[in-house]
Amino acid sequence: MKKKKPDAPLPQQDTFGPWVRIGRAHQSLNDLIIDALRQAILQGQFKLGERLPEAKLAELFGVSRIPIREALRVLSHEGLVEINPRKGARIPLLSTDELREIIELRAELEAICARNVARDCTPEIREQLQALLNQGNQAANDNDLSRLRVINKDFHSTLATASKNRYLAEFAKSLRDRTYWLFSSDAEGTALATWREHAAILEAVMAQDEQLAAALASRHVKRVGTHIAEKMP
Fold first, then answer.
1. Quick one: which of 225, 220, 175 has its CA closest to 200?
2. How far apart are CA 88 and CA 41, in angstroms?
């Protein structure tokens, strides 16, 4: 009787590039590739409208095309990838009108998040938001854009999670992900202004001023979104 060959080991983490953050022991290969490709997209490794051939991605991540195909399918449902049966996958291109529609809805959701947290801002949440704000101010002063993008996302996602409404948090995350690379591309010229607005939101939340927190959160999203829309061709 022939001995069964042992399962091939998963590729080393470096194979997937710098985007894999979770240990391989806790994830399947498919989940690893999904997370790695998601992070690559969110970190701006691909341009808007850029095509994502399965063969190219398979070579990039050091795997077969099967997990790549599954990753593209999953990310298409998240709005991060657009799949055309004939032309394949690509990074979506947003029109100005589409961006404005997303910004309008995102502003409402972020306002609800801020209002909910202001209503019930626990010491633990207050400490988390203050820590993120301090880190963001430092990154802005250092002009560390890569770090600032991560902290900016963490700031909003922490508010969404602290809102204690998982559906709200999920919808808000979906819209943030769809526009993340656009917002992050605007970080260089507006880093300090962005963090001044975050500070004002935090102060309103800590003061438990629900109306002000909601208004500031909505205004922040609309300001950045409008600025980006004005620069789009």
1. 220
2. 16
Among residues 113, 115, 106, which one has the least CA distance to residue 212? 115
Token couple for 190: 């507006």
Show the tokens assigned to 158: 């922490």
pLDDT per residue over 95-132, tens digit each? 888 889 999 999 999 999 999 999 999 999 889 888 98
Are the beta carbons of 85 and 176 closer than 8 angstroms? no
Among 222, 193, 199, 192, residue whose Cα is nearest residue 111: 222
Show the domains of the chain with their CATH numbers.
Answer: 13-90 (1.10.10.10), 96-231 (1.20.120.530)
Place of tokens 């910004």: 103
Quote the pTM value.
0.71
- Read off the pLDDT of residues 161-202 as tens digits, 9 standing for 90 and up: 999 999 999 999 888 887 776 776 665 667 778 888 988 999
